[in-house]
Structures are given as structure tokens and as C-alpha cells.
Design brief:
The chain is 31% helix and 32% strand. The chain is an alpha+beta fold. Strands 1, 2, 3, 5, 8, 9, 10, 11, 12, 13, 19, 22 and 23 form a 13-stranded mixed β-sheet that branches. Strands 4, 6, 7, 14, 15, 16, 17, 18, 20 and 21 form a ten-stranded antiparallel β-sheet that branches. α1 packs antiparallel against α4 and α6 packs across α11. The longest helix has 20 residues. It is globular and about 65 Å long.
Length: 477
Amino acid sequence: MNAGLPLLHDTFARAARRAAATGTPTLASVSVPLRPLDFFNLIAAWDDGVTPWCFHEAGDASVTLYGWDCAVELSATGDTRFAQIDARWRTLVSDAITAGPQPPRLVGGFRFDSRGPRSAHWASFPDASMTLAKLLIVREGDAHWAVCQQVVAAHDDPAALAHACLARIESLGALAPAAEDDAPHLLHTQALQASEWQHEVRRAVDAIHDGAFGKVVLARDVLEQYARPVAIAPLLRRLRRRDAHAHLFAVRRDGACFVGATPERLARVAAGDVRTHALAGTIRRGATPDDDRALGAALMASAKERLEHALVVDAIRAALAPLSRALDVPNQPSLHRLPKLQHLSTPIRATLNADATLLQVVAALHPTPAVAGHPRAPALDHIRAYEGFDRGWYAAPIGWIDAHGNGDFIVALRSALIAGGACRLFAGCGIVADSEPINEYQETELKLSGMQAAIRVREAATERPGRTQASASSMVD
């Protein structure tokens, strides 16, 4: 790997000279190939509970990212937080110096609602935080890369920066297999009583009948306290084993980690092509194949669930239309099956206008009726007034964007905020005119159960082929 030192030094030196000439720090990045590694082993080895990091693995195996430490954080507040990050990122990359095939990338996320209630346990997760990691490990297909990223000032020492990056890359070769942790002992659970939450569902149904809105999404948070800290890397590994197609994510900030395995992608952009999907309308999986098919058929035939789904489809179409020159929206949904649930799903594609950006798409789509309601404004007002807790980054966009404007954002569902042994889990469901409170409560119980099982149960080790591989003694390809 010492062969990479001159490239690192030269790139950082060029950035320092440009910073001196312009009077502004310059983004510099260097990407070098790596031998395949196991991301869960990497997280286990490097997660010290203090250093910030982000992990993102697309459910379609397109890209996996692990960003360690922070070279610079782009943060923003309020309703314009997406536009603020967008503008600052485009300014930062406009004068960047890069070496190697991988572009610089930001990784991070946003609050669900910048006007919503605030709680201390979400204090480390601001309205918007996108991080340029000092070291970004990237897997695309079968190729692995280390991307060293810095914002270099005129007075920075290029040699020191290069040696620090090299040392961190070389440490990848010493990764050991992460041990599976035993299931932690649950001490107690704190949550709103079922009857109280169902009362809120009835209140929402009454508001719908009174014409306040057509749909609102009500969520619950459940606090589980365990006897010892919950280890994040084994939890992610178990979540992957439970669902090979979920989008995995984890964000570590100041002693807390927000982690989940969501079925829902908000938007992926590649060369101006947008991929998203409407995911709304839910029923459980069956105990037998015949039962499962019957439940799926009942979901497809349900007027209530089809209405809930159609609201999401229509809202996505309306949000994308001003930003796109072409839209492809199927007429009928299909079934999207998960380990415990099945949903109505409609894949949607669009071709962006030449001047449209990924974060403009994210801002237009979030929050969809699948996580807020319809119409958006009165549904959000109802959530703020009656839901009774701070969603923080739950049900919000989390993902990445690169220097070319490509990127991928998911909706942070089926998730938990973990700080030591304290695990705050989240689940919600869409309320429409004929919603039954007991049924909606049972749906949230099903949605919570996946994360609860992954935290509490140690499963037999069987890797998903092609996702992660044993780390090699020498990481450089």
C-alpha cells in the first residue's frame, strides 16, 4: 500500500495549493482498490461508541457504504434544510480535486419533521446532517474501494494527512471475525398503553370523518431497557439474515446509534434516472403457502388498503412531475413480501429535468403519505398535536449523494435508536376512514417484532452469498 502514499500526498498537496490560491478550503479525495472485506467485521472493530460513522447497504446489493469519522459535516435547520445541504454540497464539489474512479460522497440523514416536538434522546441528530467521512469504504458489485476524503486548508500538512489515511487503510488488513453476542436480557419495557394508542386512532378516524384529511400515519415508540449494551454489528448481521432484500442503515452519533432494516426506498438517482416506489397497504404473512396466498389476495382486494396505497402513488406522481420530463407509473400495485408482512407496492421511474437534483427530489417526496398522511400539511399538524413523541430521524430520509449528483435515500422504518442498553423502537401505520383501532395496533406490533427479535435472539451464522466476504491479510488489490 505504500505505493499509494505518493498519490495521497500529491492530491492533498494540490488541494492545499488551490486553497491558498482561492482563500477557501478545498475538497480532496483519493480512491484506491481494496480486497473484499466483511462490513460487519469492520463495524465491530471500529465502533468505539464515540467516533461518528454511517453505514448504508442497498437491498438490491447495488452499493454498500461505511463512512468512518468526519472530515466535514454539512448541517442545516428548518424547512429549507434539503436546499441548504444541496447548495453547500454543490459549492464544495465544484472545485474538488479527486484521484481514482470513486467520487466524493456525503452520507447522513434528516429529521422527519423540523417543526415537530424535540426530545433529549434525539439531541445528537439534527434537522439535517450529511457527513464527508475521512475514510469511506465502498462496495459496488464485487469491487471494494477505500476513499480518503479531506477538506484541505492552505496551512494543512499534506504529508500528515496522507500518512493518517494510509495508516487507517492498512489497519483494514487486521480485521478479525466479529463474535456473535448472546441475546441481552430484557429488564423492562415502557410504552403507551394499547388502549391509549387505540384512543388516538379513534381520534384520527373522527378527524377524517370530519374532513380534516383523508389519511394520517400514527406511530408508536417503545422503550426497551436491556441489562447490557446492544452491540450494533451483530444486530446488523442478524437483520440482514432475517431479510435479504431490506435496506440496512446505521448512523452513530455521540454515543447513540440509529439502526434499521427498512423495506422502503425514497429515491435513487443514477445519471438522471429516478427509481422510487409506493409502499402502503399491509397484511401479515400466512403460516402456510395457501394461507399466505389467500392473505395476499385479500390485501389486493381490500378497498381500504387500495385507497391508502393510491394516495401514496398519486402523491409521488404529483411530487415528481415538476422535476421530471418523463414518468412511468404502473396502473396496478403488486405484492411486496417481507418475513412477517406483505405490502402493496408500485415501482415508479422518472427521468429528471436537466437542472433537477437528487435532494430536490428528496425534498419534494418527503414525507410521503406512507409515513405522514394526505393532504400533507393537516396530517403533519395532527401528528404534532396528538402522536405524543419525537420521531427524530424515524421515517425520515437517510442515504448518500456523490459529487455527480447520484445517490440513494431510504425511508428509515423498522428501526431503533440504541444508546447502551436502552433501545427505543418505532412503528406506525396509516389511518383511513374505516380503520379499526385494534387492527392498527396489531399491525404496529407486527412491525415492531422484527427488530425486537433481531435484538433478543441469536441466530445460526449463515452469510448471504455475495454480500460480505472474509477480510484478507493485505487489503490492497
